[in-house]
Amino acid sequence: MISVWWLLRSLFLHTGMSQLRAVTWFEAQTICRENKQSLTVWKNESTNFYWTGFYKKTSHWIKIIDCYNATEIQYGNVNFVELRDSSPQLCQEHCLRKNISLFAVQARKCICLSDGFDYSKSKLDPSNCNYMCSDTTLLSTDCGGETGFNVFLTDTTIINVYSRCLSVECGATPKFTDYSCKFLLSSICSNLVDDWLYSSWTKTKDYCKSTGAYPVGNLTLSNVTMACIEYNLSNTSPGWIGVVKELHNKQDQGQLITYPDQKFITSCMKCRVNYTTQEPQCQYEFCNDNSISEVYCSKNNSVGKYTDTTSEISSTLVTTSGLPIDLKARSTEILLIQIVVPVVLVLLFLSGLIFAVVLYIRRKLSKEKDSKVDTNPSTNDSRIYSNVQPQNSDNYCELQQPYSTSGSTDYSQLQFDS
Ligand SMILES: *[C@@H]1O[C@H](CO)[C@@H](O)[C@H](O)[C@H]1NC(C)=O
Ligand SMILES: *[C@@H]1O[C@H](CO)[C@@H](O)[C@H](O)[C@H]1NC(C)=O
Ligand SMILES: *[C@@H]1O[C@H](CO)[C@@H](O)[C@H](O)[C@H]1NC(C)=O
Ligand SMILES: *[C@@H]1O[C@H](CO)[C@@H](O)[C@H](O)[C@H]1NC(C)=O
Ligand SMILES: *[C@@H]1O[C@H](CO)[C@@H](O)[C@H](O)[C@H]1NC(C)=O
Ligand SMILES: *[C@@H]1O[C@H](CO)[C@@H](O)[C@H](O)[C@H]1NC(C)=O
Ligand SMILES: *[C@@H]1O[C@H](CO)[C@@H](O)[C@H](O)[C@H]1NC(C)=O
Ligand SMILES: *[C@@H]1O[C@H](CO)[C@@H](O)[C@H](O)[C@H]1NC(C)=O
What we know:
This protein is α+β, with helices and mostly antiparallel strands.
């Protein structure tokens, strides 16, 4: 019994002192959200790495349609919004919330177009749509122009391509190919001008624009055979088309991020203060990186709930200050529940079993020996056993208490603050 107890005790001490539980960016975000906060935006919270509220998110597929006359686009469309940035991906997000997949961008203006939009009318040469976009990596000069709007189409089809730039091969077996945007491929411009130039996706788009067209974008993504037929494509080597995913730079607003949305969040910013230089060191990292065990939330999130792109524009950044949540408390609670409690139960069961076996053997022996002699050791034994049990539960509390109290103070502090 005593040796079992020591085994148990050393197990407690060992797991109790093991390293802190690491959290992914999503877990850290959830901890803050559950406390009605968002992740910190300060870059000077700790000398150990921690997650900040900054992250990068990919958009849905954006298909380039064309450049259209601004007067025509705006006619009858008074309901445009002014975005925070000139950015096709922000406009896509805004229109998707209204369940509209066709959208037009001119600088910070964003218009969600109705299904009745006439594609064939009032097209302009791409040279009329050369405004720079901010916060983009691929559609960098495609935010309309003085007289034009760039029109795009959203496609939420999930295809098995990891690159943000889509390429297609239309031969005997048509397929969407998966090449990095920097890879040199041939161009498939919508005027189907032949070219023997191999270039990156961005160079391809610029090349097509210089010939008065865009890379073909209005393709069916759910059926590549159909896509090849739509433009009579027969290229037997992969070529770039006008279908891309943009990257957003985003900031946590303390909103619920459901699993399908998590897949679009590709990298998250972690920071630490360099101990020697006292300068913050920040870098984007795979969001499921599990080497981080400190969580800092905003003290007050008066940015409020994330509702609409329009409210996002008007809201300004508030000063936030970090509040560490000691994960030791959480991790130990989890350890106690997940590991230690089952171990205790199993050990208690085993010791009970041993006790029963011992009792059984003794009873068997007692049949051979004098019964009066035998009852004494038996009661003595059960006394040892009952001694072990309170000692056991005492120690359990003693180990749990410091953590759980520190945990509850943390939470009450949080509640008080918010
Ligand atoms: C971080 O820096 C800001 C000013 O730049 C300061 O107000 C804040 O107190 C600092 N936070 C920490 C944890 O040092
Ligand atoms: C755009 O359309 C308006 C009205 O239809 C027309 O007056 C204008 O010349 C057009 N602009 C361009 C650049 O073609
Ligand atoms: C969005 O549009 C599709 C069809 O275009 C429709 O099936 C769906 O119910 C709409 N969703 C919402 C939320 O309006
Ligand atoms: C895009 O494709 C759809 C369906 O294939 C078609 O109805 C529409 O006219 C096309 N738009 C352009 C600009 O080619
Ligand atoms: C894809 O499109 C082609 C041509 O229209 C058609 O024959 C084929 O059945 C389609 N495939 C699927 C899976 O829908
Ligand atoms: C594809 O080829 C057919 C027949 O050759 C032609 O009628 C059609 O207009 C072509 N489509 C495109 C988009 O070039
Ligand atoms: C801190 O900064 C100094 C000087 O830039 C650098 O040499 C050192 O490696 C940094 N420390 C860490 C832990 O990155
Ligand atoms: C936190 O923000 C809310 C508004 O969202 C405000 O009413 C409240 O006073 C703020 N609390 C503190 C402690 O600043």
